[in-house]
Design goal:
By secondary structure, the chain is an alpha/beta fold. The chain folds into two domains: 30-83 and 430-486, Immunoglobulin-like; 86-423, Glycosidases (TIM Barrel, Alpha-Beta Barrel), CATH 3.20.20.80. The chain has helices at residues 2-23, 94-101, 105-116, 158-162, 164-174, 207-223, 251-269, 299-307, 325-335, 355-368, 412-423; strands at 42-50, 58-64, 73-84, 87-91, 125-130, 179-184, 230-232, 274-281, 283-285, 291-296, 313-319, 340-345, 348-349, 373-378, 380-381, 395-396, 399-402, 407-410, 429-436, 440-445, 451-457, 462-468, 471-477, 481-486.
């Protein structure tokens, strides 16, 4: 079975290489000739953040004379509509919620507006934990019991009502369109092979109970006025952790859970929540969690095969801690372009030599390689990288909250996310983009049809030519900066439709199973990265 799966993966990768090779050919366009007449000058809005912190989400209106200049060029295909975007965000862990909730009301409001107001940080996606993670105050599930409790008589979200839900409600008051993905770090211990919350696997006899546990969480949040839009089945299912909740889950078990248990339960409950498989690194991984070789993981393809791509499967979730981002995203997208790709976790920390650049490259490459959403890890941590219970003691939050001074400070990750979100808010679509020179770039078409380019300049200050269709514009880029450039007013772009995810089956007893979507290789417009 393993040998056959590897052979299938090799075949898909070979076909993908041909598709990507074609994709890298530049699209045709007409370069605007230099214009010397100042009366032809145009205005455009920019947002700039630099790695050294001298510019932090700085907005500026530029007046330039159209025309190309020597040096790097960023070419945006205004008709090259690619994937739609849910946006950027982070995880509201219990640790983050405790810190935010502890701020005085005026400071808390200022922080949340800085993060979530569309004209400020613009974050539009959040991840929450089902139970506990390493960034929780205690390691307890939502249905702890001394013995088996398949009817979930002990299920309760009382701990979430204390910290997470109040902060969530304040966030939703600022932006009611925030989308939420929820992830468990483990099933309750009594469902597992070890009887422990920290490690082990889910016993097959408790798969139905585990599905009920997940649905109970979504229903409980709904009853609190919070919609869980997306659900993963297990955080990092190939990682074994001794110091905080974890659980091994193979692809065939995820497929059974989606096909045989979660799907029927979600239909019965009338919930529109969709499921993302995997929720782990780009690489092929095996317990205790490290990469096995350099190939992309076949796990999402195995879940796809085991479910036929049927409801409630909505896509695949990746983390950034190992593997090749472009290869993994392209592999899964080529296999089934109608489902979505979410980047559900990536943490910055003290180990990084280039924290600003790492995050800038992550988001730019995600958009160039079919991701619909990019989320970092903790939304907020304290100056000592906590509070945490086991796990990472060197992680960085998007903001740092200092309980001793009732203050907060945005980190470099905030600067990157806010810069990216400004002209490409929730509902935007990626546009095919090509570059020359050392810069990296992506482009977006806003919901109202206005294009923008987002350029990471890893080197010294430089002037680049931004080409929107046949309009060439010289733009100065600061040293080691991320710059978002909105095309001049009147420039329009094509916005792709959201792909139709598999529909739930008719709940009537005589209904047949939903037909699986057609699995085809995608024809990919030009991209960079």
């Amino acid at each position: 079975m393993e040998h056959r799966r590897r052979g299938q993966l090799t075949t898909v990768l070979a076909g993908l290489a041909a598709v990507v090779g074609l994709a890298q050919l530049p699209f045709s366009r007409t370069m605007a000739a230099p214009v010397a007449d100042d009366s032809m000058q145009v205005e455009m809005d920019t947002v700039v953040s630099s790695a050294d912190g001298t510019s932090r989400v700085r907005t500026e209106r530029l007046t330039v004379t159209p025309g190309s200049v020597p040096g790097p060029e960023v070419r945006v295909d205004l008709a090259g509509a690619r994937q739609r975007l849910h946006g950027v965000g982070a995880s509201l862990t219990e640790s983050s919620a405790v810190l935010i909730a502890g701020l005085p009301a005026d400071e808390r409001r200022a922080l949340l507006e800085a993060l979530f107001a569309p004209d400020r940080g613009g974050l539009s996606v959040l991840r929450v934990v089902i139970g506990a993670s390493d960034f929780s105050l205690e390691h307890r599930s939502l249905a702890d019991s001394a013995g088996p409790d398949p009817e979930l008589t002990t299920f309760s979200i009382e701990r979430d009502r204390r910290w997470v839900l109040p902060v969530l409600r304040e966030i939703l008051a600022i932006n009611p369109d925030i989308e939420i993905v929820a992830s468990p770090w483990s099933a309750p211990g009594w469902m597992k092979t070890t009887g422990l919350y920290a490690w082990g696997g889910l016993e097959e006899r408790y798969e139905a109970a585990y599905a009920r546990y997940l649905v109970a969480f979504v229903e409980a949040y709904r009853d609190e006025g919070v919609t869980v839009d997306w659900l993963t089945l297990q955080n990092e299912p190939s990682a074994v952790q001794a110091s905080y909740p974890s659980m091994v889950m193979l692809a065939d078990q995820q497929a059974r859970l989606v096909r045989d248990h979660l799907g029927p339960l979600l239909v019965e409950a009338g919930l529109a929540t969709r499921v993302l498989s995997w929720d782990h690194n780009w690489c092929d991984a095996r317990p205790p969690g490290g990469c096995v070789g350099t190939e992309p993981t076949p796990f999402p393809l195995d879940v796809l095969a085991g479910t036929g791509g049927r409801y409630p499967l909505g896509g695949t979730a990746f983390h950034c801690y190992g593997g090749n981002q472009a290869a993994a995203n392209e592999l899964v997208h080529a296999a089934i372009p109608g489902l979505q790709l979410w980047h559900t976790e990536c943490s910055g920390g003290t180990w990084q030599a280039d924290p600003f650049g790492d995050t800038a490259r992550l988001v730019v490459r995600d958009r160039n390689h079919w991701s619909n959403a990019t989320l970092l890890w903790n939304l907020a941590l304290d100056p000592t990288h906590g509070p945490h219970l086991g796990g990472c003691d060197t992680c960085r939050g998007v903001v740092t909250v200092d309980p001793a001074s009732d203050s907060w400070t945005p980190e470099v990750d905030y600067d990157v996310l806010a810069t990216v979100a400004r002209f490409g808010p929730q509902g935007s679509g990626a546009l095919a983009t090509a570059v020359t020179g050392e810069v990296e770039a992506t482009a977006v078409c806003s919901p109202d049809g206005q294009p923008a380019a987002i350029v990471w300049n890893p080197g010294d200050a430089a002037t680049v030519t931004m080409t929107f269709g046949d309009l060439a514009l010289p733009v100065e880029l600061a040293t080691r900066s991320l710059t978002a450039v909105q095309a001049p007013e009147g420039t329009t772009c094509t916005l792709a439709a959201w792909p139709q995810l598999p529909e739930p089956p008719d709940p009537s007893p005589t209904a047949s199973t939903t037909a699986a979507p057609t699995v085809t290789a995608a024809v990919v417009p030009a991209f960079t990265g």
